[in-house]
Structure formats: C-alpha cells, structure tokens
Amino acid sequence: MRAMARSHVTTDGTARTSAAGNRAQEAKSWVMAAMSELVDEGKAEWNHAATGEIELRMLTGEVFVLGEVSVTRVG
Length: 75
Fold this sequence. Notes:
1 helix
C-alpha cells in the first residue's frame, strides 16, 4: 500500500494566511501614511479618544475612529 503524501492544505493555508496578513499590514501602513499626510498638510487633526483608539477629525467636519483593523466614520 502506498503511503499518503502530506496534505498541502495546511502549508498552502498557512502561506495564504501569511500573505494576507502581509497585505493587510501594507494596506494599514499606506492608510496611516495618507492620514498622516492630511494632518501634516493641516487638513485634519488626530488625537487619542477616551477608548484608546485614534480619532481623525477632518477640517470639513468628518470624524473617523481608527481601530486596529478598521476605520469607522462616526461623524
């Protein structure tokens, strides 16, 4: 009887998870850099909310809460 080869599902799944994590981190870095640029240009300001999250306030009135993995518009 032939021995079964190890399943590639775990390896491929791990590789996909790692690649997705890398893309998510790259996207987060890009978004944070863009928001920082808005602050540097005087178009927005940010501070720490009471919850510990970062709050971004645009001069046009929009307010965003920057979570660990999401950005939520609250105003």
